[in-house]
Amino acid sequence: MGLTPTTVEKTGLLQTKQLYEYILKTSVYPREPELLKEIRDLSSTHPRSFMVTSPDAGQFMALILKLINAKKTIEIGVFTGYSLLLTALTIPDDGKNHESFDFAFVDADKNNYINYHENLLKLVKPGGIIMYDNTFWGGTVAMDDEFVPPYRLEMRVHVIELNRNLAADNRVEISQLPLGDGLTMCRRL
Ligand SMILES: C[S@@+](CC[C@H](N)C(=O)[O-])C[C@H]1O[C@@H](n2cnc3c(N)ncnc32)[C@H](O)[C@@H]1O
């Protein structure tokens, strides 16, 4: 089956919706804290529920937060609070949300990601992590223009520019992960 815009929107990089649901049901939902599940359920009735960070991307974020023993974190772009609560539940009780940061999560206005990046490089300590959500922009970053849904067109330009800039930025190490709608992880050098 070819990847049409519709299938990409529903499955990310995965080939089928069933495979994505398998991952969620097998590896993600059984380990999701109850409070997060509640937020996800409440958010699902919101007309913009698509904005909530994907639980598979969230699970990966939590793993990274633990791996780097993050205590000081910052989030740019809060919606119903799924990713923010996930962070708060993951970092230790003496964790903080200010000062020189171990970890930053950016999930806001895509046309400003490049500005956020410059500022976060000053705020996140060397060895710290910056994560950018939606770096596939519904799969449209790799689509021919003719297949891109009109509502994706404007921000797509900025996401493509961000991806290009991050790839060329020697101040960070990066990995662009096929989680949720694309999650790019940067480690500040
Ligand atoms: C995709 S949602 C974030 C979802 C969040 N990660 C979650 O799991 O609930 C993006 C949010 O960023 C907010 N936003 C957009 N532009 C912003 C800006 N310039 N500054 C702060 N927040 C912004 C929007 O209002 C929206 O609530």
UniProtKB/TrEMBL annotation:
Keyword DNA-binding: no
Gene3D superfamilies xrefs: Vaccinia Virus protein VP39
Pfam family, one: Methyltransf_3
UniProt keywords, alphabetically: Lignin biosynthesis, Methyltransferase, S-adenosyl-L-methionine, Transferase
GO molecular function: O-methyltransferase activity; S-adenosylmethionine-dependent methyltransferase activity
A biological-process GO annotation: methylation
Stored SUPFAM superfamilies: S-adenosyl-L-methionine-dependent methyltransferases
Superkingdom to which the source organism belongs: Eukaryota
Family as reported in the entry's similarity comment: Belongs to the class I-like SAM-binding methyltransferase superfamily. Cation-dependent O-methyltransferase family.
Stated name of the protein: O-methyltransferase
Organism classification: Eukaryota, Viridiplantae, Streptophyta, Embryophyta, Tracheophyta
